[in-house]
């Protein structure tokens, strides 16, 4: 008997090119943004002082991909024309304070054996170390801060954008590129920081269907063998990606998941049916992630509505959901949130597509009220809320939906 796992290249040529991290040799569907961005970077190759650039737009609209692509091109041009340029990239995901950002930037500029500890330094010392590291460089230095909106205070950005004016750097021309998924981030900044950081602003709108189709066609040509995709697969992935907010990452992931399903089932081509099934799987996973990330009382509200669904008592009025929510809280002697607060949770669930709700009218004198129901199957919600259910107890209505994992649940 041969090895269990055998190489399989029936459909794929280069599956890795359908991963989010892959940067293609050319960027499609972002011509206007690239033109604006190139113009903003041009002073660097002229040896002139660079403008600070602020890039914003939702996740998956090409901000980081275009930045990486253009900086690679700029690096090649700088080497060709002997322009002294250094690029330093810091992803701010996981960094919530200016202090953390400054320390991580110092360490980014140092060899690993000379890294400083992430705590325990006076703030003034951290910035002094940062200026020392930057002054060891020469020519033009561009600092790229991806997901800049994770930093909750202005100190770091103020220090960086004012470093030249304040006389902290004397050997370099310092420029900053800030990339944000939050278009309102710049409005929350101190006026001085905002004017310094946003010398050039470039907005990346969501991809349209045609742009997404170009992106997918480019990836598919590299990733799949010829004739591996049914004719309507890419238009369908593009249309679903557009519905999902014009997110290219999502559309590319959908194409990859459909390809993986085809591979698993030994299909000779990727079909639209496989795309639709891959979409269902992605939506289910996304819903699971959203539900697991809810706060405790949000989860309890969803749990309450799910128990009513299991009893076939939905759509249920807000006050009925609140009664069940209070019962769950009381079982563990927890103070419930107010009815008004719980109704706001239900409104949020509808926005997240976890629930459906509608208004009911009781006639001329009866007023109106809202009714709610879950928009996911009961087993999926129960699976996502397992931690809360194990802590607060399994309501009798959902016992049959609990996974047979051997875990004991107290029953309400």
Model description:
With 412 residues, the protein is of the alpha/beta class. The protein is 47% helix and 12% strand. It has a five-stranded parallel β-sheet, sandwiched between helices. A hairpin with a 6-residue loop joins strand 7 (355-361) and strand 8 (368-374). It is globular and about 75 Å long. The protein starts with 30 loop residues before the first helix and ends in a 20-residue tail after the last helix.
> pLDDT below 50 for ≥5 consecutive residues: which ranges?
none
| SS element count, helices | 15
Spatial gap, N to C terminus: 53 Å
What is the mean pLDDT?
A: 90
Q: Count the E strands.
A: 8
- List the strand order in the largest sheet: 2-3-4-1-5
Q: What helical percentage do the residues reach?
A: 40-55%
Keywords:
412 residues; alpha/beta; 8 strands; 47% helix
Q: What is the topology?
A:
Layout (H helix, E strand, L loop, with lengths): L30 H15 L7 E4 L6 H18 L4 E7 L6 H12 L13 H13 L3 E8 L8 H7 L10 E9 L10 H7 L2 E4 L5 H15 L9 H11 L4 H17 L7 H21 L3 H15 L5 E2 H14 L7 H13 L3 E7 L6 E7 L3 H7 L1 H7 L20
Parallel strand pairs: 1-4, 1-5, 2-3, 3-4
Antiparallel strand pairs: 6-8, 7-8
Summarize the structure in short.
The chain has 15 helices and eight strands. The chain is an alpha/beta fold and 412 residues long.
């Amino acid at each position: 008997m041969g090895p269990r796992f055998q190489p399989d290249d029936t459909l794929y040529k280069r599956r890795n090119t359908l991963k989010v991290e892959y940067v293609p040799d050319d960027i499609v569907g972002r011509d206007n943004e690239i033109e604006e961005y190139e113009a903003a970077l041009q002073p660097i190759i002229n040896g002139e002082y660079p403008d600070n650039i602020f890039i914003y737009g939702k996740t998956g609209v090409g901000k980081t991909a275009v930045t990486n692509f253009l900086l690679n091109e700029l690096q090649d041009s700088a080497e060709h024309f002997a322009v002294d340029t250094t690029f330093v990239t810091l992803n701010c995901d996981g960094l919530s304070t200016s202090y953390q950002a400054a320390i991580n930037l110092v360490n980014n500029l140092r060899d690993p054996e000379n890294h400083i500890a992430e705590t325990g330094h006076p703030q003034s010392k951290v910035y002094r170390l940062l200026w020392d590291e930057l002054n060891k460089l020469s020519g033009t230095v561009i600092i790229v801060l991806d997901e800049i909106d994770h930093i909750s205070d202005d100190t770091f950005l103020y220090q960086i954008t004012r470093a030249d004016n304040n006389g902290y750097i004397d050997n370099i021309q310092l420029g900053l590129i800030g990339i944000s998924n939050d278009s309102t981030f710049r409005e929350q900044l101190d006026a001085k920081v905002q004017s310094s950081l946003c010398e050039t602003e470039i907005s990346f709108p969501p991809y349209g269907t045609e742009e997404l189709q170009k992106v997918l066609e480019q990836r598919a040509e590299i990733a799949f063998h010829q004739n591996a995709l049914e004719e309507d697969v890419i238009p369908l992935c593009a249309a679903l990606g557009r519905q999902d907010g014009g997110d290219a990452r999502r559309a590319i992931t959908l194409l990859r998941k459909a390809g993986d399903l085809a591979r698993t089932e030994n299909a000779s081509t990727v079909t639209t049916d496989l795309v639709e099934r891959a979409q269902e799987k992605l939506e289910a996973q996304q819903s699971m992630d959203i539900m697991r990330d809810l706060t405790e009382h949000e989860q309890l509200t969803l749990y309450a509505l799910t128990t009513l669904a299991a009893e076939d008592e939905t759509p249920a009025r807000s006050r009925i959901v609140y009664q069940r929510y209070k019962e769950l809280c009381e079982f563990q002697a927890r103070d419930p949130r107010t009815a008004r607060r719980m109704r706001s949770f239900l409104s949020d669930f509808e926005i997240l597509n976890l629930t459906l709700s509608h208004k009911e009218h009781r006639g001329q004198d009866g007023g109106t009220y809202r009714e709610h129901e879950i928009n996911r199957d009961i087993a999926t919600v129960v699976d996502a809320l397992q931690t809360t259910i194990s802590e607060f107890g399994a309501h009798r209505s959902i016992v049959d939906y609990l996974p047979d994992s051997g875990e004991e649940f107290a029953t309400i």
